[in-house]
Write a structure and sequence with these properties.
By secondary structure, this protein is mainly α. It has helices spanning 2-23, 39-58, 68-96, 111-129, 132-139, 148-167, 174-194, 198-201, 210-227, 237-262, 279-310, 324-327. The longest helix has 32 residues, at 279-310. One of its GO terms (cellular component) is endoplasmic reticulum membrane.
Length: 328
Amino acid sequence: MMQSSNNSSLLSSWCNYVDWLYSIADPRVEKWLFMSSHWPSLIIVSAYLGMVKWGPQLMRHKSPLHLKPLMIIYNLSISALNAYICKQSYSAATALGYSYVCQEVVYSYHPEELKMASTVWWFYFSKIIEMADTVFLILRKKNNQLSFLHVYHHATMILFWYIGARWVAGGSAFFPMMTNSFIHVLMYSYYGLAALGPNVQRFLWWKPYLTQIQMAQFLLGLYFAVQSFYVPCRFPLWMKLAFIAYMVSLLALFANFYLKRYSHGEPPKKVDHVHLTDESSVTHAVAHSFEYGQKVSRFFVSLDNIHQQHHPKSKSVNRTRKEKIYAV
């Protein structure tokens, strides 16, 4: 009887906590697709994990499908979508005079703030579409590429950016969104164009830099998240901490993946866009990533200074939000 009472109390406390969380969520996005509740995102991710587990088994006795034309269209379409997201986030951030160092979320119905919120939603939705990467691997029977890193990245990005779109659809969330979408333009355009054949592949000069740019993205995001603690900024503390933890997990998984695969001098697989063949190469790539990260961070800090000189801080039209959201 006591156990049942304790369980009931825990369930009630959890429900109250969830209700409180949604009471401080962004009201502007509440009616948007998949935003009213966390259940759609959880169901999508659960279905994705089920596909990863049982999909290869269903394909076990089937021949791999040849999906080259479809994959070309898919990759170039994803590249175009990410280009749109990158452009929209930069355009709105510039119009609003956003800081590249740390920017408060303004829950306003100002057209540019709504544009930013909409762009964050599209970024979240793009992560659902990108689960097709895994579908193609399964249908083509490329099961060796269904690594923990691959699955973790696709599954968690949906959940992480559901939180981003529902609670912080703007502010400092724009920067990781903008950089990630830019990198995805490079990645997916490479995959789409490379599938056209050798005559096109020889013009894709950016292939060797993709891994270094990806690593630099994580390091850059981590740098800006950490330094935001030293800047007066009302971006939610809990989101800063969550972002730092997520970036650290991705960096650790990327480093572990490459060291395990290439530390014994194994040649890279044809499908890999990473040219790392030993531990020293990994170190070399990380060193270059730090160098790129430092250069890019200096660029954005300079850009931020210019923005703050020429653009007044955007003022909230609706500042009736609960103050506690920033302290959590």
